Structure formats: structure tokens, C-alpha cells
Amino acid sequence: MTPAPTSPARPLAFIILAAGKGTRMRSEMPKVLHRVAGVPMVGHALAAARALEPERIVVVVGPGMPEVEATVAPHPTVVQHSQAGTGDAVRAARGALEGFFGDVIVLFGDTPLVTPATLGALRAARDAAEDPAVVVLGMRPRDPGAYGRLVANGRGELEAIVEYLDATEAQRAITLCNAGLMAFDGARMWQLLDAIGNANAKGEYYLTDAVTVARSRGFACRVVEAAEEEVVGVNSRADLAEAERLLQARLRRQAMEAGATLTDPGTVWFSADTRVGRDVVIGPNTFFGPGVEIGDRVEIRGFCHFEGVRIAAGAQIGPFARLRPGAEIGPDAHIGNFVEIKNARIEQGAKVNHLSYVGDARVGAKANIGAGTITCNYDGFLKSHTDIGAGAFIGSNTALVAPIAVGDGAIVGAGSVLTQDVPAQALAVARGRQRVIEDWAISFRKRKEAEKAARRK
Ligand code: UD1
Ligand code: MG
């Protein structure tokens, strides 16, 4: 990510609007909690804001949105009781910014792709010679749709923002749109907001009207343009899918720029917090849920699913591996096909190559876990731990009934159901003994054939 431009000495505050009901999402869940690349949209807005190290961040939520409050904690929230529009929402934050006279950036919780660099540019534009009271982030989307239109002159001087529903045909033809983010001079913003009315198509207090008010008082307003890819606003599920597509493209690019090979980038899905080392190779159709860290030189063959996992340098994973929260894969370990690992540490050079479930366990360095091994970690009530020592060899199709420990260097015969600990360097075999009866098959067939013939008569 490009660093934010160095900021002026004035203090900075953010107001993040997250109170809207998000009716167009048709969801029980507040809109800003819908996730993009594994993170709630409001979390993306917060992360971008935090990168500028502001003095204050205030999140405006609707009444009865405890999940939003929990998601943005420890940042303070204020409740907008009426949901009477974006201007009304900003007004709700006034008390929380009592005595603050620096720059105030208003950010929408439904605009998750904005970068710190762009927020920095928005803020830097407040330093223009004519001391603009408001700086608006503009964009020229391929499909301007229902975005607000910016009425500006060629010099970036802004006269008004017209909401789509209120716009004339001529105004709707304007391609420069309102991305929704605005930087205000904190010393003048509240007088602008106080003057905003609600005589418009929606009967709402539009934040966007701050521009007309500012112009009527002779204050300058400016536009800073951003790429559409950064400022798509999410109002519907289709918009959410579009935001996901754009963010995935960015994350794939970042992973490749950081030195990873993506065999088929379009089929690799990252979370915003996925960390990928150098010379990592990621095969097709791989999904990274939140909390995944991949060390250098890791090879991930295709069709893997990860969540809450750390993979150390040089490990080989997949194809078709599922690593669940708390899996820690040590350096040079091998995890093969149809293997599920949960809350388990697989130490250096250990191998779990085929068709196994390893949960609530430790597998020591260089241990070899045979095909079809299962840690029986759950008795219907409690989870228990399995400990496998360094260099142990677990034969195929072994069931380890936890709690249980297999010592260093021990060998377990294939097909065993182990219920007791195995000492280091011992052999454990826990299965029916094999009996061999010579020529039994011949006499069996004879007997059966005679029986069949007798029935036919
Ligand atoms: C808004 C802008 C529009 C711009 C678009 C960009 C206004 C009036 N319009 O329209 O010019 O092109 O964003 O995406 O600002 N919210 C509240 N309280 C409310 C209403 C909204 O907190 O009473 C929050 C929402 O949770 C959301 C944000 O404000 O995060 C934007 O609201 P939304 O209803 O999505 O505005 P748009 O119609 O997208
Ligand atoms: Mg919106």
C-alpha cells in the first residue's frame, strides 16, 4: 500500500457514517457489517482512517445496532436516532467533536475500498490557497447510475452536489460523481450543517448540501478525483459483489507484487489481512479466510481452504487441504490431499499426507502420519488433546482416542485404535490378530456348492 502523503500540522478527526438501514441490501444485518474480503465494510473504512493516525474517530450508528458498536470498538460511537439522511448523521457526531477545530473527514461505512493515500490527498487539498471549507472526493464511474452529481468548473472548483433523484436531465448527464467522502474545515463545518434543510426528493438532510451552503457564504469548495475502483459505494448485493471483485483484484496484485506466484490469480480469494511471503506459489482455486499468514517459499497446490492459520517457510500444502483456525504448520512440513487440520501444531518437517483429520493436537518434528489417521478429539461433550512425539510413525488408518500421547520415535501399527499412551520408541498394535488357515477357501467353496445343488432339487 502506498503511504499516505505527509499530513499538515492541523489535527485530524474522522466521522464514519454507519447508521443507514441499508434497505436495498434486503438484510436483517446492518449494511456496514456485510463483509468484503472477509472484513465488515465498516472495518475497512476504519482501517483506512486509522492509517492517517487521526486524533479522533467517531462512528455514527443507528439505534439498536450493538453488533456495529462491537465491531468498531474501542472507537466511540454516537447514535443517530432519526436516520434522516447523511447530513443529519454528521450532526449526530457534533457532541463527540466538541472543542475540535482541525480537519474533519466524513467517511461512509459503505465505501470500503478507499485507500489511506486517497484520504491523505483529500486532506491535503484543504491546504489550497483559497482555503476551501469543503473538499469532496469525486469520481467518474463507467456507470454513473444514481450517484450524486458534482457541479464543478474546469478548475476543480465546486458549486453544488445534486442528488440523482433531485437532478435535472442536464445534471444527470454530468459524469463527475460524488464518491461520498468529504473533508471539512472543522471550524466552519457546523455552521454549514446547521443550515442544511430537507426540501428534496427524499425529505432527508443531505450532507451534500453543505457545498451549496458554503458557496452561498462565499467559501471555496474543491474536488479531488479518485479512481472508481477505490470509491464504489455498496447499496445492494450486486454492489457488494462488485466491491469484492475489485478488492480481490487489488489483493491479488499486492500478493504478486510482494513476490508470490499465483498460477491462476482470478481463482485465488484473499482476506484483507492475508499475509503472504516471498517465493510463495499459490495454485488455482484457493481460499484464504481471515487470519492467515504464509511464510516464504511455501507451496500451496490448488483447491485449498484456509482460515486462522500460520504456515511457516518451506511448507507444502495440498492440493485439497483444509486448514482451520489454530492450525500451525511448521517449516518444511507437508500437508497433503484431503487432510483437515484444526487447532494443531504440525512441527518442522512432519508429514500428514493423505486423508487425515488432526484436531487439538501436536505432531512432533519429522513425525509421519499415515493415510486415514484420525484424532478422535471429541467425545460428544469435551475436546481432548493428542500429542505425537518427534519422529513417531503412525500407521495408516489409525484412530487416536484423545486424550492420548504417543512418545518420540514410537511406531503404531496400521489400523490401530489407540486408547492408551504409547511410550517413546515402542511399537503399539491395537487391532485383531490375523489368523491364516491353509486351504480353507477350497473346502468352503465345496461346501457351499453342495448346499446350492441340494436346494435346486
Ligand atoms: C450518498 C451521497 C451521494 C453519493 C453516494 C456515494 C448523500 C445525500 N448522497 O448516497 O451523493 O454519490 O453516497 O456512495 O450523501 N447513513 C447514515 N444515516 C443516514 C443515512 C445514511 O449514517 O440517515 C450512512 C449509511 O450507513 C452509509 C452512508 O451514510 O454508510 C451513505 O448513505 P447511503 O444511504 O448509502 O447514501 P447514498 O444513497 O449511497
Ligand atoms: Mg451508499
Report on this model:
- The chain is of the alpha/beta class and 457 residues long.
- It has 2 domains: 12-231, Spore Coat Polysaccharide Biosynthesis Protein SpsA, Chain A (Alpha-Beta Complex); 237-428, UDP N-Acetylglucosamine Acyltransferase, domain 1, CATH 2.160.10.10.
- 20% of the residues lie in helices and 29% in strands.
- The strands form 6 sheets. Strands 13, 14, 16, 17, 19, 20, 22, 23, 25, 27, 30 and 33 form a 12-stranded parallel beta sheet that branches.
- Strand 4 (56-61), helix 2 and strand 5 form a beta-alpha-beta unit.
- The longest helix has 21 residues, at 237-257.
- The relative contact order is 0.08.
- The structure holds uridine-diphosphate-N-acetylglucosamine and magnesium ion.
Summarize this, please?
The chain is an alpha/beta fold and 457 residues long. The protein is built from 10 helices and 36 strands. It has 2 domains: 12-231, Spore Coat Polysaccharide Biosynthesis Protein SpsA, Chain A (Alpha-Beta Complex), CATH 3.90.550.10; 237-428, UDP N-Acetylglucosamine Acyltransferase, domain 1 (3 Solenoid).
